[in-house]
């Protein structure tokens, strides 16, 4: 089962990429505005109300520039055309999926980031990023509500003989309510990303702030740490062994968090979730250590089967999600099979998205109200 899951997720990672939202495209509306992921004061890249993206790069000596979008620059990219002033410009062939996308520039065969865009760690390197405004972006918008805090911690790891980093989200009011203890969600990033992904690309803290302010969830802590324990190169995910990370998470990070934060240090108040590779880690660790977590969530990270979970009392919730352009039928069927076997299983499909952050932002929004009931 583990090998089949590894192959399935690896296939997603190596084939997913930038997606156009439709095929028969209307005329482009010239209402382009700078992307919210731009460097301060930079006009390009721009996006319009239809979801098209337009890029401009000044490179007088270049012979060719292509914008490569999506995981690993899949789908061929968008070629730019050189103008007399030495600048290069081009617009995507169609509207992009809503939400966040990684991209980079290929200039005369070399890979570079766009000087107009902010950088985000993804695809095992720092990539440029662009945000296509989503019709439902309000749930992860920065609003005038009480905000929690995302802080860096460094925790000792004897198993890796180093100090490791994690980021901890504590909800608004944590510092004032000195006697209140909180449940904890351990939330993992995907392949090629790191422990910054969920709070930067994913806006997990803003999603939590908004849900808490709306009274849709009770406050809880989120812990996000680096999910790799060895230098696995691109294409090497098949050989990645989760046992070492399991030790880091369960035997080192969780005790440290319980000792240094006001947590409810009990299985029934602890959840694990992850996107893509982080879902694979969640799948393996929750099955191997059922005494640690009561809530399991795979976000574009495969599925569970009834046969894998030996004791029905171990899991209070099994949540599985994906984009509608991934494996929606498989995720839905897995939930149906688990429910038929007596498990509390929930499936969620993000409409018109693929293996990308809007899928996972929406998934977190749906998951959070189901936790710690």
- SS content category: alpha+beta
Return the domain count. 2
Please write the CATH class name of the largest domain. Answer: Alpha Beta
Bulk shape: globular
Overall pLDDT level = 90
N- to C-terminal separation? Answer: 30 Å
Stretches where pLDDT is under 50 for at least 5 consecutive residues are 1-20
Beta content comes to 25-35%
Radius of gyration: 21 Å
Name of the CATH homologous superfamily of the largest domain: Alpha/Beta hydrolase fold, catalytic domain
Oligomerization: single chain
- The neighbouring-strand order within the major sheet is 12-13-15-14-16-17-18-19
The share of residues in helices is 10-25%
Largest beta-sheet characterization: 8 strands, mixed
Report the CATH architecture of the largest domain. Answer: 3-Layer(aba) Sandwich
CATH topology of the largest domain: Rossmann fold
> Helix-strand pattern, N to C?
HEEEEEEEEEEEEEEHHEHEHEEHEH
Number of strands: 19
**Count of helical stretches:** 7
Structure description:
The chain has 373 residues and is α+β, with helices and mostly antiparallel strands. The chain folds into 2 domains: 2-133, Immunoglobulin-like, CATH 2.60.40; 139-370, Alpha/Beta hydrolase fold, catalytic domain (Rossmann fold). The protein is built from 7 helices and 19 strands. The chain has helices at residues 2-15, 197-200, 204-213, 243-260, 277-288, 328-340, 357-367, and strands at residues 33-34, 46-47, 53-58, 65-69, 78-79, 81-82, 87-91, 99-107, 110-112, 119-122, 125-132, 149-157, 162-170, 184-188, 221-225, 270-275, 295-299, 317-323, 345-350. The strands form 3 sheets. It has an 8-stranded mixed β-sheet, sandwiched between helices. Strand 8 and strand 9 (110-112) form a beta hairpin. The radius of gyration is 21 Å and the shape is globular. The two termini are 30 Å apart.
